[in-house]
Amino acid sequence: MITKEDCFNQLRDVIDAVLSTVDENGNPQSRIIDIMHIEDEKIYFLTGRGKDVYREIINHPKVSYLSLKDNKSIRISGEAYQLDDQKYWIDLMFDENKFLNNVYPGESRYILEPFCIENAEMEFFDLTQKPIFRKTFTLGNAKITPKGFVIGDNCVACGICKGVCPQNVPVEGEKYCIPQENCLHCGRCFEKCPMQNIERL
C-alpha cells in the first residue's frame, strides 16, 4: 500500500517535475522546476526573480506540480508562498542539490527566491497495474476534492457499467459500486448507464 512517505521519497528521487502556473492573461504555463527540499510534509523550490514564473506565482499563487517515474505519477495541487529567512532556505537547498552551484555559482544564487507549498492535495496514480490504482493524500490543512463517479441508489444491477469500464472496476452486488481507488475517471459508465443512475462527484 502506497504511503505519503513513499510519495515524498519518489519526489526527491525524481527531483525534476513540471510546475504549472497561470499567467496574467489566464493562460496555463508549465515548466520543469525541480523540487529542491521536502520537510514536515512541505514542498520547497526556487525560482529567479526575473523569471515569468516568479511573477505568475506572486500574482496567482495556486500551482500544480507533476512528477512521473516508471508510469507512476504524483500530482500536488495547492498554493505556493514566499519564505522568510531567504538566505537560510537558499543555502539549504543548494547544499542538498549540488548541481545548482554550476547554474548559479557563488553569490549569484541570491537572485533566486525560495517558495513553499504547504496546504495541498497530493495524488498518487499508478498505471502499471490493472486495475489502475490512485490514492489522494492531504498536506497541511488542505481538503480532498472528490473526483470520479458513484452509482446511485436506483441501481438495477444490470452490470452494464462493469462491462463498459476499461478496467472492469465496478463491483457486482444488489447495487453495484465503484471502488474510487481504481476508477480512471473516464466517464464511460456515466455515459452508458441505461438508468442514468451514475453521478459525477
Summarize this structure as a short list of keywords or feature phrases.
single chain; 201 residues; alpha+beta; Pnp Oxidase, Chain A; Alpha-Beta Plaits; 2 domains; 8-stranded antiparallel β-sheet; two-stranded antiparallel ribbon; 22% helix; 33% strand; Split_barrel_FMN-bd; 4Fe4S_Fe-S-bd
Please explain how this structure is put together.
By secondary structure, this protein is of the alpha+beta class. The chain has 2 domains: 4-139, Roll (Pnp Oxidase, Chain A), CATH 2.30.110; 149-200, 2-Layer Sandwich (Alpha-Beta Plaits). Helices cover 22% and strands 33% of the residues. It contains 6 helices and 10 strands. The strands form 2 sheets. Strands 1, 2, 3, 4, 5, 6, 7 and 8 form an 8-stranded antiparallel beta sheet that branches. The protein has a two-stranded antiparallel ribbon with strand order 9-10. It is elongated, with a radius of gyration of 21 Å. The mean pLDDT is 96.
